[in-house]
Amino acid sequence: MKKLRRKPFFKLISDYTLFDDLGIDPAACVDYNPDHNLDEDSWFKVEQFSAQAFCVEMVKGDFDAKEYDDLAKRLFNDISYIVASQGEDFYFQKVTPSLFLKRKTVVFGEVAEIEESQSRLVINAQPDAVYLRASDTLIFRNLATISSIFPGIDELYKEATQEEVEQFLEKPFITLSNDFAAEKVSKPNRKRIALAMATLEALPEQDKAGMLTYIDGYCGQQLVFDANSGQFEISTDNELKLLIYGIEQRFYTTQFGQEKRLANSVQALG
Question: pLDDT class for 3, splitting at 50, 70, 90?
Fold first, then answer.
């Protein structure tokens, strides 16, 4: 419940399965990356979830529904999310005002009947997140949706600070033009910079010259590169995005047809 901190969880219903078993293999899920676009049937994952600071206490020990009081009617509209304990797993759904319905309906039983307005809470066909206890893994599709369920989980959505953006733009292989500066860097690129800085830190020094050649080979038409100074001229936010994609090695050539492409999302295969 949003307003109750000492005792925030209540029992709503018992002996009913709210969500269908998703049958998802955690090994097939994608480690969370804010710049990754999920396929329709894919899920992000956070492993060792019970050890994370944003893990809810409910899932850490043995769950016993008898420890929770029944939800009073007066608190119904204060529900912020629901948790369904199904087998060993926990299914989470965020509750928003649009999911509360109160309207007159026609009910089809033996005959059609009018049912007067009653408060109803819509259960979505698919949960927003699932904690798989056996593998200690949280799976989800949209981080923003579940951030209110797991306070602090947005730390996964790391965005470079203003100081970090300025430091990145001062890298020796970057020269700025057209008054482009840190203040003009978009939010998506700030996320990408946070990832790119980690990539550069792990890149061996002997590979950095090859990285510049690689980027120039794919972006020669879009980015100005001075081979003598070893610098890319960055004058727009889009040019910065291409440079970061190059640092992340998003460009590749197909084996058959030799077509140059940009990978919108990447996933390590091992």
Answer: low
* pLDDT of 270 strictly over 70: no
- Return the sign of the alpha-carbon dihedral for residues 193, 198, 201, 205: negative
CA distance 63 to 85: 8
The CA dihedral of 84, 60, 26, 87, to the nearest 10 degrees, is -40
% of the chain surpassing 90 pLDDT: 60
The beta strand positions in 18-173, using DSSP E, are 30-31, 44-47, 81-86, 89-94, 100-108, 112-121, 129-132, 137-140
**To which H or E segment does residue 175 belong?**
strand 174-176
Mean pLDDT of 176-190: 95
**Which sign, positive or negative, has the C-alpha torsion 7, 12, 17, 19?**
negative
| Cα 191 from chain centroid (whole Å) | 12
> CA-CA distances (angstroms) from residue 110 to 12, 107, 139, 209?
29, 10, 42, 77
User: What mean pLDDT is predicted for residues 209-225?
Assistant: 95
Residue in 31, 30, 35, 46 with CA at minimum distance from that of residue 193: 35
- Would you mind telling me the total number of residues written for the chain in this entry? 270
The tokens for 11 are 């029992």
Per the CB < 8 A criterion, the answer to whether 93 and 17 are in contact is no
State how far the Cα of 174 lies from the Cα of 184, in Å rounded to an integer: 15
Q: What is the four-CA torsion angle of 145, 149, 152, 153, rounded to 10 degrees?
A: -50
Is the backbone of residue 262 left (phi > 0), alpha (psi -120 to 50) or beta?
A: beta
Q: What residues does each domain of the chain span? A: 26-100+126-156, 162-262
